[in-house]
TrEMBL record:
PROSITE patterns: ROK. It comes from the Bacteria. PANTHER family: BIFUNCTIONAL UDP-N-ACETYLGLUCOSAMINE 2-EPIMERASE_N-ACETYLMANNOSAMINE KINASE (PTHR18964:SF149), ROK (REPRESSOR, ORF, KINASE) FAMILY (PTHR18964). Pfam families: ROK. InterPro entries: ATPase_NBD, ROK, ROK_cs, WH-like_DNA-bd_sf, WH_DNA-bd_sf. This is ROK family protein. Signal peptide: none annotated.
Length: 401
């Protein structure tokens, strides 16, 4: 029997790092705050808050605003995120497009570049991604010492035999390829890689409808389908960073054949690829989401696909609600927002689940608001996400006896 894992204690440096994240997250979520307000929101002592704020201000991650007049005593000084305190590069690779952005610490996009691709192999994509990073830094001039790193989003699942590189919704040749290491070698910049659905969950929480949520599921509808899981205040990635690969969950036993070798997988009914095939759009390998948007705008019927997709989507939402009990499920990804809205409008009645309560503060399903760049914005946040999101598992790291 393997050794039992227990919750270990934490050392002072880990607690300090955790508290810094908590303070920055409180300010990012609520806007400019005084030290007293931060202390109330975080339950940290006044002295701890003072030390952290002074440290973050000296590092130019926070900046003091005009003082607020109080009823008595010294006026309170509010602190806000300093946008120029740091910059990061976000890259996203998909079947037909490579996108890059530079964002500041507030998440504002300072430069954006996109390049067409065609289901690229690592040998084709790596030099292109490195070139995009270089072009971004030439397009937007900034203090390079403030560059925090590169975050990259790409389709999963990662390193799963028979799934990572097989079928029309997978990218070929990426099985076991050391993406982060190779991109770092080409650019000289630290690189963090995440699947596109997880990156999109980060982007939606920072910039979209999930901004103040502690638990939600982001359904990323792209060429395939995946889910980003934000649970109890932090991302859940799974033991091999493949949590949320629900596109290969069987919703119709014996149904449509999937590239993974099974039949009836969810993404065979709910995905861009599924829509192209159901609507008999020519050359689905090179079809664009804008085609669906144009069909909708012209009044052409998407009914054949919606009718095929809606019950599998209801099943997926039901399973996610029962398994994870999220505050809401957010629909987004590369699927045009109008088409996602059409899907969302047809979901009722949803199946009975733990989310079926009249006391709900928000709908069970929301359409994402961060747009088609949600994943690349989330990717840009990867190098700084540990500074802008309290990850409570830092204080509960597994320890083997």
């Amino acid at each position: 029997m393997p050794p039992r894992k227990a919750i270990a204690g934490t050392n002072l440096e880990q607690a300090k790092s955790h508290n810094r994240r908590v303070v920055i997250e409180a300010i990012r979520t609520n806007g400019a705050l005084s030290r007293a307000a931060i202390a109330r929101l975080t339950a940290l002592s006044t002295q701890t808050i003072s030390n952290i704020v002074e440290e973050l201000e000296s590092e130019e991650l926070l900046r003091a605003q005009a003082t607020l007049k109080g009823a008595r005593g010294q006026p309170a000084v509010p602190y806000s995120i300093n946008p120029d305190g740091g910059y990061s590069i976000g890259l996203q690779l998909d079947h037909q497009l490579a996108v890059g952005v530079i964002t500041d610490l507030s998440g504002t996009v300072r430069a954006r570049i996109e390049r067409p691709v065609d289901r690229p192999t690592p040998a084709q994509a790596m030099p292109l991604l490195a070139a995009i990073a270089g072009d971004l830094m030439r397009k937007f001039r900034f203090d390079r010492s403030r560059l925090l790193g590169i975050g990259m989003a790409m389709p999963g699942p990662f390193d799963v035999e028979g799934m990572t590189s097989v079928g029309p919704t997978a990218l070929p040749g990426w099985q076991d390829f050391p993406v982060a290491e190779e991109l770092q070698r080409l650019t000289g910049i630290p690189v963090t890689v995440e699947n596109d659905a997880t990156a999109a969950a980060i982007g939606e929480r920072l910039y979209g409808v999930a901004r103040n949520l502690g638990s939600f599921v982001y359904l990323f509808i792209g060429t395939g389908l995946g889910a980003g899981l934000f649970l109890d205040g932090h991302l859940y990635k799974g033991s091999r960073h493949n949590a949320g690969e629900i596109g290969h969950m069987i919703v119709k036993p014996g149904g449509l054949e999937c590239g993974c070798g099974k039949r009836g997988c969810l993404e065979r009914y709910v995905s861009l690829r599924a829509a192209y095939e159901c609507l008999e759009i020519p050359d689905p390998d090179h079809a664009s989401p804008e085609l669906l948007e144009a069909l909708l705008a012209n009044g052409d019927s998407l009914e054949a696909w919606v009718a095929q997709a809606i019950d599998p989507l209801r099943q997926a939402i039901n399973m996610l609600e029962l398994a994870l009990d999220p505050e809401t499920v957010v629909l987004g990804g590369f699927m045009p927002v109008g088409v996602i809205g059409l899907l969302a409008s047809r979901l009722d009645p949803l199946y009975l689940s733990v989310s079926s309560t009249s006391a709900r503060a928000m709908p069970r399903v929301l359409v994402g608001a961060a747009g088609k760049d949600t994943s690349v914005l989330g990717a840009a946040a990867l190098p700084i996400f540990s500074e802008t999101n309290p990850q409570f598992d830092v204080l509960q790291k597994p320890h083997a006896f």
